[in-house]
Amino acid sequence: MTAAASQADDRIIRESGIDARIALIVQPVLRGIGFRLVRVHLSGQNGLTLQIMAEREDGTMTVEDCEEVSRAVSPALDVDDPIEKAYHLEVSSPGIDRPLVRKSDFVTWTGHLIKMETSVLVAERKRFKG
């Protein structure tokens, strides 16, 4: 996928708050090294953990890719320093329970069973399976 095509396939599901600020910092870094951001999540269980979920343009992600992403985003996060406290950086692939965040994700996974939770009520419910 070209850079222009990648930008045309931007995420339609996005973070809010501090997660959104972090996403703005890491997304250009990821694009620059050939990866797409799937999700950013900062959690506070057992200290702070920043999870960055990413993948290559073809949807793959190896352990070596996770290491490459970690080494690329760490300096950018150190410069902008959006997190006030110490945290652990965790880079992962989307895996089997991947979030669908782009229109192309929905196309790619057409025909597969999904469990979906919306942020607003749809037909008086938020959880769907099918």
Molecular structure report:
The structure is a single chain. By secondary structure, the protein is an alpha+beta fold. The protein has one domain: RimP-like superfamily, N-terminal (GMP Synthetase, Chain A, domain 3, 2-Layer Sandwich), CATH 3.30.300.70. The chain has four helices and five strands, in the order H-H-E-E-H-E-H-E-E. A three-stranded mixed β-sheet has the order 1-2-3, covered by helices on one side. The protein has a two-stranded antiparallel sheet with strand order 4-5. A hairpin with a 4-residue loop joins strand 1 and strand 2 (48-56). Helix 2 (17-32) packs across helix 3. The protein is globular, with a radius of gyration of 15 Å. The two termini are 29 Å apart. Residues 1-7 have low confidence and may be disordered. One of its GO terms (cellular component) is cytosol. This is Ribosome maturation factor RimP. Residues 25-97 form the Ribosome maturation factor RimP N-terminal domain.
